Amino acid sequence: MWDDALLRYDMGEHPLDPVRVELTMALARDLGILAREGVTVRAPQQAGDEVLGTVHDPDYIAVVKAASTGRRIGIMGLGTTDNPTFTGMHEASALIAGATRAAAEAVWLGEADRAVSIAGGLHHAMPARAAGFCVYNDPAVAIARVLELGAERVAYVDIDVHHGDGVQEIFYDDPRVLTVSLHESPRSLFPGTGFPEETGGPGAEGSAVNVALPPGTDDAGWLRAFHAVVPGVLRAFRPQLLFTQCGADTYRHDPLANLRLTVDGQRAAYLALRALAEEVAGGKWVASGGGGYALVECVPRAWTHLLAVVTGDALDPATVTPPSWRALAAARRPGHPVPTAMTDGGTGAWTPWVPGQTPDAVDRAVMATRAATFPFFGLDPHDPRD
């Protein structure tokens, strides 16, 4: 799902700069990914109030509309440093929601095998409050649409460095939606939620799974944690569709967080998610973007890898970034280092989790999550085969 109009989600002098999405699409184009056989680039339609109202309160939508006209608004999370208002905010936010909803609808209805809404992933927005740079919660809007179309089990896996709190909150009491979030510990990072003990509301126990990783976690530790938790709960839940939020702010040089992944580790995560979608969800996979504030160094490369994995063969990490893209990146962000290859020299290697074998902070986080959630799925927290 793409149209240049998606770049209008622009908060001005702000970390969430749309240049990261612009450079992603430019890199994907220059590497030929968007021209692959079978790939369709479709322009989205703006989500209407009724669609937004499936997850957001009408009063909140009205306030967002008022703020979009240039009025000063300082309520419901708007008008803050994190969520400054801007002219056209409602329209830009609703377009992103429409893009992600259309991606999910196309996959659920069989019009596409997989789909991606790279400008989406605004996972912090709450039913009646903006939060964490997010106005409308497009992943939740998309999931609500799939449920409306008859889905009985949808899995949401969030690999952004921040907890996917908005999506979890919206579906916390709904046993049809499994939310899984791997993120930096809420003790050290916004939004301060996402502890292992958050496991779902009454009647939906086990529907929320949270892996809170220590600052400094690198590729090997992150991938060890991912494979120790995510495959087991997805296999037990048996989703009919997998939705993933693929924020790139786990990057080792991201200015807003403290994990230490390379683009190679992120690429390995995308490959693992595609394999799980094939295994547990009949291949039905919808991916979105999310956070990511290393605007030139990471996000365009990470999400170009994602677009490649969604649309076919993964890119060779040794692929050289095209001179045309390097020139654009240098012009759009003077002074930023411009990567010359699609790799950071990482390997994406990891060692499988075995309880007590590597008793470090990552493994303690894994054990906390498994102990809190695995019994709900009939899984043994101490058995690495589960």
UniProtKB/TrEMBL annotation:
Pathway: Ketone degradation; acetoin degradation
Residue stretches making up the Histone deacetylase domain: 14-309
Cited InterPro entries: AcuC, HDACs, His_deacetylse_dom, His_deacetylse_dom_sf, Ureohydrolase_dom_sf
Keyword Protein biosynthesis: no
GO MF term set: histone deacetylase activity
Coiled-coil portions: none
GO BP: acetoin catabolic process; epigenetic regulation of gene expression
Keywords: Acetoin catabolism
Family note: Belongs to the histone deacetylase family.
Protein's UniProt name: Acetoin utilization protein AcuC
